């Protein structure tokens, strides 16, 4: 449960520490005092949306932290994010909201993203906002509520797997089913592209070789002149000897004295080695010169091929390899289109089988939903009787529809507000107070299915008064026996039934507005209940009436829970 909420620089709250207690906690205060800001702070520390506009004027950043106790280490979201409660089962969530929009989030000191914080926070506390009752007007949400109550995760996942497989086959069929004119145009285009690429006779890696050869051909005259000059220097010609002959003559000159000393023998060996190396070098240069045949026609051909590749690359790919891959893609597409009729026959056969699987999975899902719907109807009906809506009938209607991602059913919540009236959609007949109580009933039923230990209700009493308000208060008191309940309210009946009562008060100091949250004792509660009932003029009669409300609340708790 939520033990402590610490708030810094959130709207009009400069600093506040609220120590919540087990059971039913009520927050009251004048309109605009900051009650909903406390709820906004809770939402922020749980990973909810938090705008920089939430930061108190003049402050650089806002900060919220929340201490939860009795947190099981097996709670979903904790292990996934590497977070564990401390040895006493406590979990500290923190969020800092900067003026630049950046957020710093932590759980027991471990840094988290806002998404990770939201994943953990959603398992700890559930907030029922002022306008959540309006969600009942959106019939698309009704199926989600039923699935949540019936724990339909497994059958819904099985159905969606079958549906996605069917949808993939349908997409394949749609891609093949084009009109004949469009098909003919596309096939002509593919044939032209295939023909153009095949005539080019592309070879992987040829572009690099072509560029190297073209560069050589462009400098052919320089290439020949350089090799000829080197060959002349090394081998000479008819008119003179080259370096090889000169080295050989030097070698012959030393041959006769090479044995006279080790030093002369070494010099002779060096000359012999140099001669062999220079001879090999001369042969290599001579071969290079013989191999190279400069031809202007070859240069023109290389330039033409380069230009052809350039034009093809602009249409079909950045490299020769990309163009070859595109050619294969075109061939595959053309082959598929030419055999489309046969493929369509096969796909239609697969589609019929896939549709049968979807309908079977959908029928199973519908069956389980209807079983859950019966249980939910009974639970909601019981909750509504507790909320003084004895004559209201609640039912869940199923209408068959074509298979969609969420199933084969249109699910709607129906109600009849008065005896003898037909069941009709909630959106058409429910008043604001009825919506609030039906939503409260639904929230309570769903909360029983979940491990969330703390429920927060922000003005759940909207549109409710009199006897109905007392029933809502009693229902929250009942829920608070097994869940921690935090409730922002304007009704004295609800505030009187709380186990712990906080007052949210707004004041002014140093020209700045501030808000503080105070836990009230019994006398202060009487004064606050009198204010809620009668406004600013608190009379002895109002104080006496407030005391009676508290006495009635004590008597109710003793009668039902002691």
Describe the structure.
By secondary structure, this protein is of the alpha+beta class. It is 55% helix and 19% strand. It contains 18 helices and 17 strands. The protein has helices at 35-45, 114-121, 140-150, 153-176, 180-200, 206-218, 220-235, 243-255, 262-291, 296-316, 320-338, 340-386, 426-429, 432-448, 466-479, 492-497, 522-534, 540-561; strands at 2-10, 13-19, 24-28, 61-68, 91-98, 103-107, 110-112, 125-128, 236-237, 240-241, 393-404, 407-416, 424-425, 454-458, 484-488, 500-509, 512-519. The strands form four sheets. Strands 2-1-4-5-6-7 form a six-stranded antiparallel beta sheet, covered by helices on one side. It has a six-stranded mixed beta sheet with strand order 8-14-15-3-16-17, sandwiched between helices. Helix 5 (180-200) packs antiparallel against helix 11. It is elongated, with a radius of gyration of 43 Å. The two termini are 22 Å apart. The model has no long low-confidence stretch (mean pLDDT 85).
């Amino acid at each position: 449960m939520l033990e402590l909420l610490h708030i810094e620089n959130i709207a009009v709250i400069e600093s506040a520490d609220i120590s919540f207690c087990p059971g039913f906690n009520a927050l009251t205060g004048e309109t605009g005092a900051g009650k909903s800001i406390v709820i906004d702070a809770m939402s922020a520390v749980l990973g909810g949306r938090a705008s920089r506009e939430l930061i108190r004027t003049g402050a650089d950043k806002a900060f919220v932290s929340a201490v939860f106790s009795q947190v099981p280490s097996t709670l979903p979201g904790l292990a996934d994010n590497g977070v564990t409660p401390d040895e006493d089962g406590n979990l500290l969530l923190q969020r800092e909201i900067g003026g630049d929009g950046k957020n710093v989030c932590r759980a027991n000191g471990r840094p988290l993203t806002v998404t990770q914080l939201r994943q953990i926070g959603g398992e700890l506390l559930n907030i029922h906002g002022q306008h959540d009752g309006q969600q009942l007007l959106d019939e698309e949400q009704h199926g989600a509520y039923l699935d949540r109550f019936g724990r339909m995760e497994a059958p819904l996942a099985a159905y969606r797997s079958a549906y996605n497989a069917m949808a993939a086959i349908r997409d394949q069929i749609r891609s093949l089913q084009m009109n004949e004119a469009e098909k003919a145009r596309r096939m002509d285009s593919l044939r032209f592209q295939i023909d153009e690429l095949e005539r080019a006779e592309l070879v992987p890696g040829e572009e690099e070789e072509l560029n190297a050869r073209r560069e050589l051909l462009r400098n052919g005259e320089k290439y020949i002149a350089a090799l000829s000059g080197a060959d002349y220097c090394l081998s000479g010609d008819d008119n003179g000897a080259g370096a090889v002959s000169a080295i050989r003559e030097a070698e012959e000159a030393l041959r006769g004295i090479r044995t006279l000393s080790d030093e002369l023998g070494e010099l002779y060996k060096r000359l012999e080695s140099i001669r062999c190396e220079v001879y090999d070098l001369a042969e290599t240069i001579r071969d290079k010169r013989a191999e190279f045949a400069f031809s202007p026609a070859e240069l023109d051909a290389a330039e033409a091929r380069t230009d052809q590749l350039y034009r093809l690359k602009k249409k079909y790919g950045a490299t020769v390899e990309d163009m070859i891959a595109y050619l294969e893609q075109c061939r595959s597409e053309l082959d598929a289109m030419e055999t489309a009729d046969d493929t369509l026959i096969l796909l239609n056969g697969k589609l019929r089988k896939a549709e049968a699987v979807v309908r079977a999975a959908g029928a199973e899902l519908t069956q389980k939903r209807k079983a859950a719907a019966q249980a939910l109807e009974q639970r909601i009906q019981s909750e509504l009787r507790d909320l003084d809506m004895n004559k209201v009938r609640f039912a869940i209607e199923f209408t068959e529809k074509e298979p969609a991602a969420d199933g084969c059913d249109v699910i709607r919540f129906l109600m009849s507000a008065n005896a003898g009236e037909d069941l009709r959609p909630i959106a058409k007949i429910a008043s604001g107070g009825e919506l609030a109580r039906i939503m409260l009933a639904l929230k309570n039923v769903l909360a029983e299915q979940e491990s969330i230990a703390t429920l927060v209700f922000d003005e759940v009493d909207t549109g409710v008064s009199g006897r109905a308000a007392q029933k809502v208060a009693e229902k929250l008191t009942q829920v608070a026996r097994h869940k921690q309940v935090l409730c922002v309210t304007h009704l004295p009946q609800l505030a009187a039934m709380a186990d712990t009562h906080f007052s949210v008060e707004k004041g002014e100091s140093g020209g700045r507005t501030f808000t503080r949250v105070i836990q009230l004792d019994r006398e202060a509660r009487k004064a606050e209940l009198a204010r809620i009932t009668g406004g600013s003029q608190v009379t002895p009669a109002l104080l006496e009436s407030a005391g009676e409300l508290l006495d009635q609340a004590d008597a109710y708790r003793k009668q039902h829970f002691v």
